[in-house]
Design goal:
Elements: H1 2-28, H2 43-71, H3 74-98, H4 102-117, H5 126-129, H6 139-145, E1 153-156, E2 160-163, H7 164-176, H8 185-201, H9 204-213, H10 217-233, H11 258-287
Helix pairs in contact: 1-2, 2-8, 3-4, 6-7
């Protein structure tokens, strides 16, 4: 009986989502931000959509992801992740070729071939063990390589944080990420639903860290997304940023917790302050 009531609640939430979104955006039009983030001039709108997405996630996606994570055995979740990862390698390879990275694109093509055969239709990631590194590329990164600027930070309903460039590339990524389609509509919808739930379940562990790691969840996710996106575009080798640039924020290295990243940023700031102090003392000595 409880499951039936929960499913009815989820269906009602999905049906009401457009109306809730319109109401949220209308309220956002009255909101103003005194000190907008330089990369987030539409912060009032973005915060409203962020709140809407949080509500939908809490009512629909997170409960489904939690149930999937609880019920599905680890080998099943591993196989599902490898299967969808293999499909994603096709689009990644295309984007690597479009970015002029032929070697990486060839490696991606080899991954698809190996995992689709030896890996039994992609259920097992055999290619990584054979030395073929997995990459993550999309149309937004390709446009960045072609010289298209980030544009403002932009939260997309249901899809979450993007930049304006990445939001414009989103339809291409959705289409390109599903190049292999099932002919049966019901089966295709079931596979798409499984993919969404699986990907949301993979983020369950990060929820608690985000909740505990910041007082402003919106600002934390925004800053992390912009830094992470910059890291991805430069393939893990972003150019160093100047601390005297008002728009620059210290880069959070991948793999560090929020506390470790804050410590690293604070350490870098201390070095810059010490260097500035040394320059001042040196200048005073020369004047004397």
């Amino acid at each position: 009986m409880t499951d039936v009531i929960q499913m009815m609640t989820l269906k009602k939430t999905i049906r009401r989502a457009p109306a809730i979104l319109v109401t949220t955006l209308a309220l956002a039009g009255c909101a103003t931000v005194e000190h907008p983030h330089p990369d987030d001039p539409w912060e009032g709108y973005n915060r409203a959509v962020f709140a809407f997405n949080e509500g939908v996630d809490k009512a629909v996606f997170k409960p489904l992801a939690t149930g999937y994570d609880t019920v599905a055995p680890l080998p099943v979740k591993s196989g599902v992740g490898s299967f969808f990862g293999n499909l994603g390698d096709i689009w990644t390879g295309i984007n690597n070729f479009l970015q002029g990275k032929g070697r990486d694109g060839g490696s991606d093509a080899a991954r698809v071939l190996i995992n689709s055969t030896l890996g039994i239709f992609g259920l097992f990631d055999v290619a990584t063990d054979m030395g073929f590194e997995k990459h993550q590329e999309d149309l937004g990164q390709t446009l960045a390589v072609w010289g298209v600027g980030n544009g403002p930070y932009f939260v997309v309903p249901f899809f979450g944080p993007r930049t304006l460039r990445d939001a414009a590339a989103l339809p291409g990524d959705i289409y390109g990420g599903s190049l292999v389609q099932l002919s049966d509509v019901a089966s295709r919808n079931a596979v798409t639903g499984l993919r969404v739930v699986h990907e949301r379940a993979a983020l369950l562990g990060a929820d608690r860290a985000v909740e505990e790691g910041s007082l402003d969840k919106y600002g934390y996710i925004r800053d992390f997304y912009l830094q992470q996106r910059r890291y991805e575009i430069y393939d893990g080798r972003p150019p160093r940023e100047r601390f005297d640039d008002a728009r620059a924020t210290p880069m959070q290295p991948i793999g560090l917790s929020a506390i470790e990243a804050d410590d690293a940023a604070a350490g870098s700031l201390r070095i810059e302050l010490a260097r500035a102090g040394g320059d001042t003392l040196k200048a005073q000595g020369q004047e004397q």
